[in-house]
Amino acid sequence: MKVDKKKIEKAIGDILEAIGEDPKREGLQGTPKRIADMYEEIFSGLKEDPSKQLDIYFQDEDHEEMVLVKDIPFYSTCEHHLVPFWGKAHVGYIPRNGKLTGLSKLARVVDSVSKRPQLQERLTSQVADIIHEKLSPYGVIVVVEAEHMCMTMRGVKKPGSKTVTSAVRGIFKKEAKSRAEAMSLIQFRS
Ligand SMILES: Nc1nc2c(ncn2[C@@H]2O[C@H](COP(=O)(O)OP(=O)(O)OP(=O)(O)O)[C@@H](O)[C@H]2O)c(=O)[nH]1
Ligand SMILES: [Zn+2]
Q1: CA of 113 to the centre of ligand 1 (A)
Q2: Phi, psi of 57 (to 5 degrees)
Q3: CB under 6 Å to ligand 1: residues?
């Protein structure tokens, strides 16, 4: 289902009125439509199945070592306040039976689960679960670091504070050594 743009436009008009604005003044006339268009874009992940991004994979029987794509930028929307949280995701996995996915597909999975009203913890575990279920790798590790606008521009007002979440599956859960190796690669700065 597509977003109901008419309903969003009406709601935004109501909010503008409720805060004491005049939705008919020149600068605001197009705002409900702009926001409806924007919501269609930033919530487009709601009607996607992110695991479809991993439908295509390559076979390389030889490669059963860690693959890590780090510093994947993302923007998401906090489900509590509907304001942005954004940062970087680091996604690693150890392929099994030569099931390698395209590197960009890992970033596409991050994009897809970001474009919904989200919790950072859920975003992190959804990325790990999708890769784990679809590619059956030896293990998956996902680390997400983000700044939440609901903690900076309002409320507790702590600009610069970062929230770090992680989700590990398979071997990364069982073996501290593999986890430590992945974490050192994530932290490595060239
Ligand atoms: N666990 C988790 N909490 C989040 C996330 N995004 C926002 N929050 C928190 O959700 C909580 C909502 O708390 P409430 O007390 O219901 O709302 P509030 O009165 O606006 O809270 P304050 O932000 O403390 O002013 C806050 O503590 C937010 O920091 C997230 O991704 N994960
Ligand atoms: Zn929030």
Answers
A1: 20
A2: -140, 165
A3: 78, 80, 119-121, 148, 150-151, 155-156
Domains and CATH numbers, the chain: 5-42 (1.10.286.10), 50-187 (3.30.1130.10)
Tell me the DSSP string of 95-150. -STTEEEPHHHHHHHHHHHHSSEE-HHHHHHHHHHHHHHHH--SEEEEEEEEEEGG
Active site residue 118: no
For 40, 115, 176, the CA distances from 44, given in Å and listed in that order, are 6, 6, 37
ipTM: 0.94
* 64 catalytic residue (yes or no): no
List pLDDT tens digits, range 145-177: 999 999 999 999 999 999 999 999 999 999 999
Q: Is there a contact between 141 and 148 (Cβ–Cβ < 8 Å)?
A: no
